[in-house]
What does this fold into?
Amino acid sequence: MKKRQDYISWDEYFMGVALLSAKRSKDPSTQVGACIVNDKNKIVGAGYNGLPIGCDDDEFPWEKEGEFLDTKYPYICHAELNAILNNIGMDLRNCKIYTALFPCNECAKAIIQSGITEVIYLSDKYANNDVFRASKLMLDKANVKYRKVTCTINNLILSFNEVDV
It folds into this structure.
């Protein structure tokens, strides 16, 4: 018997972990996940966008528009920052971060400061926004590489049915 040929690539695997992590987000409009991987292809951190620990999801707003304090923006911790903060206690120098959405300028600062050297993203839908232009400028100046993930598959279905294992 020969080995299976239709297995997923490392990029597809780690982006899949980021996308699965995003499913934990309670944000009704945007779910983002991130996964940090060391140079031995071991996952060392994961996160999703959500409120900080101790802040009740039912006591804070999820609105996108309105007065600043009545929106989600001052309260939400982004997936990339959560992945950095949730790391398993390792030095993140020379790690890669996989993220569903290109990181904002605040997350880019955390990525740079943590020593992560590559960002692999799925979507850059806000590329023309100044926040993301600033992010790219900082990443470029700090020599942090970034690239859009290349996948050979469009989707992957997970089953929790034990007969499918």
